[in-house]
Amino acid sequence: MSLSITSLANIAIDLQSGISHQDRFARLIRTLRQLLGGDATALLRYEARQFRPLAIDGLAQDVLGRRFDLDAHPRLEAIARAGDVVRFPADSELPDPYDGLIPDHTDLKVHACLGLPLFADQNLIGALTVDGMDPLQFDHFSDEELRLISVLAAGALNNALLMEQLENQTPAATSAPISTKSNSAEMVGLSAGMLQLKKEIEIVAGSDLNVLITGETGVGKELVARAIHSGSARAANPLVYLNCAALPESVAESELFGHVKGAFTGAIHHRTGKFEMADNGTLFLDEIGELPLTLQAKLLRVLQYGDIQRVGDDSSQRVNVRVLAATNRDLKQHVLAGAFRADLFHRLSVFPLHVPPLRERGDDITLLAGFFCEQSRVKMGLKQVALSDAARNLLRRYDWPGNIRELEHALYRATVLARSGKPDGEIWLQPQHFQLADSEPKSVSQPAVSAPLVDNLRTATDDFQRQIIISTLASCAGNWAACARQLQLDVANLHRLAKRLGVK
């Protein structure tokens, strides 16, 4: 059955109705799935050689959290390059990004696949994908009918992107995903708490106010700081990071303000401090609650007057630095206890931001699990990493005392364990791959190591060593040097062993 003028008109009317962009997109793909008879549809946004799902229908919920790099997904790259409707043959050898991600069809390969690239002024802005289990599912729809759908969808997506730029009042170049050292490229989440946080970030980013970011360990405070800097007028200038908790008091002043040659024993050359490095940019002071009281007074002076003085230097110099600070402590209580200066607290917390813990973010756990599954798939060169329903429910029930950092490590560790003995590279994560307390969601996970059934001693030994390294590395927050110390190994030997076992 072909698409009627009425059905196309209804799509156009739906896309212009006065509802939010998210609801509009959800209605679009739901309607398309009904009209085309597919098993799954998705609307994807394109930027920086990556497709990001905006709305899905008929796909596992964690797909919304996945980010599909073109280099890792040849089908999506073909859609991006095509410039027109793409019909993949049922026997196409290109892997489908949705294999195993259509509920009730997890054991079957997607057979019919349509790709509709979406353009605005000849620039690719997104794509519609429609998939089905029947190889002949879309044969009776003409390319012309499908082009009309892509034009309607492209107009709606382009309007949404323009509105987003106007609301944020930032150039399109600054709204790209935020990168971090762990390659977690953005703040993934659609929960009420995260949407409110993102809104507050947009509000404060364009100002020059100091910001105090609070939240438990592992919630992503550094990511918030990067988002604020990226959305500010200082984005083209440096964002300098300093962990106050890892700062010995003897060198803390030199780290912040620098020193001149001969200022103290060991000062054999001039040193530039973090404030100088961040001049005209942003300085992010992580774990600010650990800063010694003596330095708190000097930091306050810089915030008040903009002057810094290198250790051993009689002259001062002026800097223009925006300070973002983060802590997992209750600084108000520290002020009352006399461990933190009240005047510095008020100077830093001009605009406080609180990052909610993962256990309060509901479905965001599923989205983040999908995000990390895709990252693990790419890092390990696997065809697919998918969550079973039981594993997804386990992750939702767990309390996540280590928050997003713990979830990331848990997904990576589970993928390594599930990969053992799977040469085809299609991984299904089951509850037994996660070292979490299933029956006691409020408890902290314990690194219980269980040796799987194996055919020989070498395999058993490798599996045991692999699990020990992964668990220890997670407890050391990914720090290989600390992991080596805990395991009483030379760090170079640990790296070699980890590579041989597939951990690195």
TrEMBL record:
- Looking at the keywords, is Nucleotide-binding present? yes
- Report the PROSITE patterns cross-referenced here: SIGMA54_INTERACT_1, SIGMA54_INTERACT_2, SIGMA54_INTERACT_3, SIGMA54_INTERACT_4
Single GO molecular function: ribonucleoside triphosphate phosphatase activity
Query: Which superkingdom is the protein from?
Result: Bacteria
- Please state the Enzyme Commission number of this protein: 3.6.1.15
Keywords linked to the UniProt accession: ATP-binding, DNA-binding, Hydrolase, Nucleotide-binding, Transcription, Transcription regulation
Sigma-54 factor interaction domain ranges (all copies):
187-416
PANTHER family associated with the record:
ANAEROBIC NITRIC OXIDE REDUCTASE TRANSCRIPTION REGULATOR NORR, TRANSCRIPTIONAL REGULATORY PROTEIN
Q: What is this protein called?
A: Anaerobic nitric oxide reductase transcriptional regulator
Per the UniProt record, the lineage of the source organism begins with: Bacteria, Pseudomonadati, Pseudomonadota, Gammaproteobacteria, Enterobacterales
**This protein's encoding gene:** norR
